[in-house]
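Hey L., structure's done. Input below.
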Amino acid sequence: MRLAPLMKKHRLAAGLTQEELAEKAQVSTRTISDVERGLRTRIYRDTADRLADALDLDGTDRDSFVTASRVRPAEIPPGPRIPRPLTPLVGRSWEIASVVNMLGARSLRLVTLTGPGGVGKTRLALEAALRVDPEATFVDLGDLNDARLVVPSIAGAVGVPGRAEPSVESIVEHLGDEHRLLVLDTFEHVLPAAPDVGRLLVSAPAIMILVTSREALRVRGEHEIVVPALDLGATGSAVELFTERALTAQPSLAIDAEVAADICHRLSGLPLAIELAAARAKHLPLPRLRDELRNSLQVLTQGARDLPPRQRTMRDTVRWSYELLDPDLQEIFRDLCVCAGGWTLDEAAIVITSDALEGCSVLVDKSLVAREDQRYSMLDVIREFGLELGSRSGALDRHLGAFITLAERAEPEIGGAEQNEWIERLVGEQGNIRAALTYAISKRDGERAMRLSASIWRFWMVHGDLSEGRSWLREALALDVPARLRSKGLWGLGWLAYHQGDYEEAESCANTMLEIATDDVVEVRNAFTMLGIVQMAKGDPNAAIPTFERCVELLSQRDPDWLSATSLLNLGMAMLHSSDPRAAQVLMAARDLYEKIGDAHFVARVILYGGYDSLLRGDTDAALRSARGATMTFWELNDRGGTAEGLELSASVAAVNGRAERAATLAAAAGSLRATITSAPFPLDAAILARFLEEIRPSAGDGKWESWMVRGHEIPIEDAVSIATTE
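Output:
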C-alpha cells in the first residue's frame, strides 16, 4: 500500500488528529498533512520510526509502514541519476578529494566548480558526485534557453508530481527532510536563477548542491573551486590524457613523449582541447599535429557526436562563453586578445581605454581570463578565438605604444641596480614584445619597430635570445628608419652578432654606424667600440688598444656613466690579451664605475677578466676566487652567456692546477650551455682555454678524457655551477 492511505489508516485507527500525531511524533503538522495528501511520498527513516512509535505499530504493520515510507510510487519515475562516464578520469585527485571532503562531511552544502569551457568541470562533478552519493540527481541545464526553466527542471528531476506546481516550495515539500545531492550542470547561461538555488538550500536543509558553471552563482553559502588545467609535467596528467585518448583513436600509434608534451603545452593543458587533438592522431603524424596546432581552432574540430554541440569543436566551446557577454564586454574581450602571454592592469587600461579593473574582473568571473598575482592571462585557444573576431580600431596601436614605453623605461634600468627585476619583468612580457614587434613590422612602421627592438637588445643578449634579437633588429632595419634610431639598431645588432661569432656582420654594422654618424660623441664612440671588438675577435688586441683609448677619450668630457665603464672594460680586455701591465688598473677603474651604477652583470664580467689577468700572471688562487665569484653571480642573475664564460674560466684554472677531470667536465658543460643559447666564446678567451686543456689532456690516460667530456655535456648546468663554485 502507498504511504498516504497507510498513514491515514493507522492515524484514524489510533484515534489521533493530524496535530496530535505530529506532537506525539515530534514532527510538523504540515509533514503529516503533506504525506496524507500525497505531496510527500517519501520520508526519512528516522521520521518513519518516530511516526511508527507514535502510532504504536509493531510486527508486520510496522515493517509495511517503514517500507512504504521509502518507496517511490510507480507512477512517479525516478529522476535522472548520475551518468556513468565511459572513459576513466585522468588526474584530478586533489580536486576530487576537495569536493568529496566538503560534501561528504556535509560541511558545505553548495559547491560550484568554475573554469573555462573545456577544462573538465562536468567530468569532475560526475566523478565526485558518484563518490559522495551514487544515487545523486543530475540536472543538465545546458539546453535551457530561459532561467525561469531551471526550477521546473529541478522539480522534474527530483520527481515532483506532475500535478504539483513546479516551484521551490513544491520541491521542498516533495523532498522534505530527505538527504539528496543535486548536480546542476552548465549554469553560466541561466545565472538569473541563482537566487532560486539559494532559496532551495535555505528551505530544504537536507539537500546539497554541486554546480558546474563558467561563472560562480554568487549566493550565500557558496564555495567556489576553480578547476585548473591539467598538469603539464613530462609525466603529468595532460600527457597521460593525450596518450590514453590518442591510443584509443590509433591503437598502433608510437607515442613520442616529448612531442606529446609539446602538444599539451600548446593546448595549455585544457582537457577538451587535448581530447580533440588526440582524435586527430589517426589523421596526422604527431610532429605534424604539433605544428598544425599553430592554428589550433582549425584542428580541434572532431568531438564525439554524443557530446553537446557546444563541445564538439573548441571554437564552439569558446563561442558559447563569448556569446554570454554583453556587447561592451565582447569588445573589451576582443581588445585584450591582442595581449600575448598576459598583461597587467595598467597595460589593460592602455589597451581597452575603459575601466580595466571592472572589465578584467568580469572576464575573470566568467572564466575567460585568469589572474595570478599581478598578471592576467587567457588560454591560447580562447585568445585565438578573440583574434579571429578582431579587436576595435586602435587597440593594436595602443598595445604597441604601451610596450615601446616599457622597453624605453627598461633600457637604462638593465644596466642599473634594479637590472635583475627589470630583466625578470621583460621575461614575463616576451609574448607581448613579440606581438608588438610583429604588428609594427607588418604595418611597416620602421620608427616604432626600431624604438622597441633597439631598446631591449641587451635584454636579448643577457637572456640568451641572441638569434631572436638579431632577427627582429634586421627586420626593423629593413624598414624606413630615422638615422639616429638606425645607428642605435646597428649597435644592438652588431653586439648580438659579435656574441654569436659573426664578426663580419658586427664589422659591417660598425662601418655603417661610422658612415651615418653625426657629431654625437656617443654615436661615434659606439662605432669605434664595435670596430675595436672586431679587431679583438680577429686576434689583434694590439690594434684594439688605440681604438678603445679613443673611445675613452671621446667620453672624457661627459660625466662617467655605463658607457664610460664599458669603454674602460674593453680597453682592459685588450690590454690583458696584449700582456699590458696596465690591464689590472684599467679593469679596476671599470669595476668601480659599474659598482657605483649598480650593474651586477658587468661587475661580474670585470671580475671574470680580472681572473684571466691573474691566471696569465700565474696567481691561480686569485684566479680561482674570481672564477667562483663571477660564475655564481652570473648564475644567480640568470645570465646564461655569463655563466658559460664563468665555467670556461673555471675550467682554465682547473687545468693549470692539474685537475684534468674538473677541467674537462666544466669545459664541456660550458660548451653545452653555449649551444642552447647559440652563443660563441670570445676567440682570445677560447684560445686560453684551449691551450691549457691541451696541456693537461695527456695526463688523463686512455679514454678518461672523452668520458669526462661526455659527463660535462650531460650534467645539468646547475650541477656544473656547483662544481665550479664549491669543489
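The first helix runs from residue 3 to 13. The two ends are 88 Å apart (CA to CA).

-- N.
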